[in-house]
């Protein structure tokens, strides 16, 4: 874990907890609409991304280009967009349900507190993932700058022969 930037592991744990809460709450309201199928997919991609990130941070002993690759940085931004889509779907469906444009399932309230709670959790998740992406992007740029100004002995010694 020494190769992860400060607070990144805490953000990863928080992201996993929020995505798990969204998955559980989404499973409770899945009979309301089949539109919320995006939640399990987003959860699965988020868990796989965080698993790969933690695995890479444990595999390298020092700051490595693999940990701050385009895949890890871009993955955080793509997950941000995915969870923003989940948020948009859940808020849109909650509004349609409250306005009566979508008929609720028999026995369920017009304003569903589980759907609103899930939307609240989904509201914070894109910000957490975006923060992870910004931190990794910043570290990637620092590593590229260090690599640029690193003394290259192979290039310099061949010129003196």
Automatic annotation (TrEMBL):
Top-level lineage group: Eukaryota
UniProt KW keywords: Membrane, Transmembrane, Transmembrane helix
Transmembrane segments: 7-29, 35-56, 76-99, 111-136
Record protein name field: Uncharacterized protein
């Amino acid at each position: 874990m020494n190769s992860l930037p400060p607070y990144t592991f805490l953000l990863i744990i928080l992201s996993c907890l929020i995505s798990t809460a969204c998955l559980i709450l989404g499973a409770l309201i899945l009979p309301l609409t089949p539109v919320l199928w995006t939640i399990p997919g987003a959860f699965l991609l988020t868990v796989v991304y965080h698993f790969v990130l933690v695995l890479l941070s444990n595999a390298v002993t020092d700051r490595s280009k693999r940990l701050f690759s385009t895949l890890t940085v871009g993955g955080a931004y793509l997950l941000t967009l995915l969870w923003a889509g989940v948020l948009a779907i859940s808020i849109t469906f909650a509004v349609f349900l409250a306005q009566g444009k979508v008929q609720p399932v028999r026995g369920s309230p017009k304003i569903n507190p589980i759907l609103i709670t899930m939307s609240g959790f989904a509201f914070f998740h894109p910000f957490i993932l975006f923060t992870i992406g910004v931190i990794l992007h910043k570290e990637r740029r620092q590593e590229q700058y260090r690599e640029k100004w690193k003394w290259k002995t192979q290039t310099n010694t061949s010129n003196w022969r």
